[in-house]
Specification:
This protein is an alpha/beta fold. It has a single domain (4-228), classed as 4-Layer Sandwich (Metallo-beta-lactamase, Chain A). The chain has helices at residues 40-49, 67-70, 73-80, 91-96, 109-118, 190-201, 220-228; strands spanning 4-7, 10-14, 19-25, 28-32, 57-61, 83-86, 104-105, 132-133, 139-140, 146-150, 159-163, 168-170, 176-177, 181-182, 186-187, 207-209. A 7-stranded mixed sheet has the order 1-2-3-4-5-6-8. A 5-stranded mixed sheet has the order 9-10-11-12-16, with no helix packed on it. The structure holds zinc ion (2 copies). The site of one zinc ion has 5 residues, from loops.
């Protein structure tokens, strides 16, 4: 399956049960996350598909340092020379290629099954060097402005990314959209994870992309508010 447009200038790139997102900026292309290993051809195909070339990929911003988000990163950087960005708490795992910090499965039976199926802390990836650490609430001057929101819980160094010009949130693994909005497969800290879900529900955006599941093109923040927003006092 090839890349698909989500909103103007944003394409979802399927990378083996995990999504990456390609943003077309006036300053070149930016990629959010880098999928499972050996999936780099999906990114290069998506770039070809919009009539651009691989050397126009300038920025590779990671939501977090898990194997299904950094797997093809080294190969992508080799071909494009893209600058890499990640929260400091996850940089050591990306730069060593594992092992990864353990997670507890998300509450519920599905979490138990999926976590064991999709996350192996002892897995090893090709390491990727990170050029720039991310800071909570900074606005990266990429593609007209990408705001960094530290959202720990699933992973200590997890960030969500809000692309201001397109009002699109990249939620990474704060949540999934597999059968509606739901939990990621696991959490390092469930309490922090819930706080991060509520933090995203307090933001205003139109579209949303997820590490796993279907992107939402319209009225996405209403769905987040319904699921995790402040409940009105009775
Ligand atoms: Zn993850
Ligand atoms: Zn993931």
């Amino acid at each position: 399956m090839g890349a698909k447009r989500v909103i103007n200038r944003v394409h979802v790139v399927p990378m083996g049960m995990a999504n990456a997102f390609l943003i077309e900026g006036d300053d070149g292309l930016a990629l959010i996350d880098a999928g499972f290993p050996a999936k780099e051809a999906a990114v290069f195909g998506a770039i070809d598909g919009i009539g651009r070339s691989a050397d126009q990929l300038r920025h590779l911003v990671f939501t977090h340092g898990h194997p299904d988000h950094i797997g093809s990163a080294a190969a992508i950087v080799r071909k494009t020379g893209a600058r890499t960005y990640m929260h400091p708490l996850d940089i050591p795992v990306a730069e060593s290629g594992g092992p990864f910090r353990p997670m507890r499965p998300a509450p519920g039976l599905l979490g138990q099954v999926l976590c064991r199926l999709f996350f192996d802390p002892d897995e090893r990836m090709e390491p990727v060097a990170i050029d720039q650490p991310l800071t909570d609430r900074e606005i990266l001057p990429i593609a007209g402005g990408i705001e960094v929101i530290h959202t720990p819980g699933h992973c200590a160094g997890h960030v969500a990314l809000l692309w201001h010009p397109g009002r699109m949130l990249f939620a990474g693994d704060v949540c999934t959209n597999l059968m509606g909005l739901g939990d990621p497969v696991g959490f390092e800290s469930l309490e922090q994870g819930r706080a991060s879900q509520r933090k995203l529900a307090s933001l205003s955006f139109d579209a949303a992309g997820f590490g796993h599941g279907k992107p939402i093109a319209h009225d996405a923040s209403a769905q987040f508010r319904y699921k995790w927003g402040q409940k009105l006092a009775a």
